Amino acid sequence: MTSYEAAGVDIAAGERAVELMKARVARSRRPEVVDDASGFAGLFDASAFLRYRRPLLATSTDGVGTKVDLARRLGVYTTIGHDLVGMVIDDLAVCGAEPLFMTDYIACGKVVPERVADIVGGIAEACALAGCALVGGETAEHPGLLEADEFDVAGAGTGVVEADELLGPERVRPGDAVIAMASSGIHSNGYSLVRHILATTDLTLESEPADLGRSLGEELLTPTRIYAKDCLALTALGGVRAFAHITGGGLAANLARSLPATVDAVLRRSSWEVPPVFRTLQAHGNVPQAEMDKTFNLGVGMAAIVAPDTADEALRVLADRGVPAWQLGEVVPGTGTALLS
């Protein structure tokens, strides 16, 4: 006699995972969240938008990429959710949107309730840090497509911004200052290159390079810093023109997306010290600097373009919030590029 469980899908394990994650998800709740007794949809009270003159909804979707493979190999599942929220919700922050809610999707070869609960618990914890609610999600068991210990995560988020407060390239002017916010490490981009270096050099996840002070595996799983509330604190100052979330493509390419075609951003390499993990990977992998520049954030996770008379106050606000930040460069007349010099 055959059954769904014989085919590799364990419904009871899925139900157990839901029970384990409930309390953690509740910590991300916002007042606007409305319970749906059926559990088929997440509900959010849109009457909250009545205080806006012209509310624009912003949405973003993303995953964590091949960083999940390192989490699997190390058996650490509590931090990968932070990476997912950072990738999704901080994209919303770029246009000045307040994040409202998020949903997640987890695909795995076999539902292990404790593992799923750790992943979702990390997502919920990070949502609370970002100020948004985790209103729903899905865990799918894919036997035969994924091995029992394999999984992937993705998510989508929604935020809101007042139409006349929308940030972006059209606000940027020559003379503006570029403020860098430090990353917590590699974040969630470039891990295919990281894994290639691990596969082709003497570096391993257990290696303990002297300048890291811990194993390389621990360093590589450092969760993504979440900037949403920091960005909102800066926009409350006034004078913020645009943000750039430094993800795949590196610092210059992502910052260029926030520039109009009439200016350049001149960025000074001398303004910061690249964190040791990037130097370690570059040295062991013999990676050219140009490849490092277009693959990794190199220590800058988010950049803000602000009016020149706002720069000092912006740095003070970020310092008060515990975010290492510095003036990375300036905006000058140009053709819409960001230049590392």
Structure in words:
By secondary structure, this protein is an alpha+beta fold. The protein contains eleven helices and twelve strands. It has helices spanning 11-26, 67-74, 80-93, 113-130, 191-200, 216-220, 228-237, 250-256, 276-285, 289-295, 311-320; strands at 33-34, 43-44, 55-63, 98-108, 133-141, 151-162, 177-182, 240-245, 263-267, 300-306, 325-333, 338-340. A six-stranded mixed beta sheet has the order 8-10-7-11-9-12. A hairpin with an 8-residue loop joins strand 1 and strand 2. The longest helix is centred in the middle third of the chain and has 18 residues, at 113-130. The chain is globular. It starts with 10 loop residues before the first helix and ends with a strand.
Structure characteristics:
alpha+beta; 12 strands; globular
Explain the layout of strands and helices.
Blueprint: H1 11-26, E1 33-34, E2 43-44, E3 55-63, H2 67-74, H3 80-93, E4 98-108, H4 113-130, E5 133-141, E6 151-162, E7 177-182, H5 191-200, H6 216-220, H7 228-237, E8 240-245, H8 250-256, E9 263-267, H9 276-285, H10 289-295, E10 300-306, H11 311-320, E11 325-333, E12 338-340
Parallel strand pairs: 4-5, 9-12
Antiparallel strand pairs: 1-2, 3-6, 4-6, 7-10, 7-11, 8-10, 9-11
Helix pairs in contact: 1-4, 3-4, 3-7, 7-11, 8-10
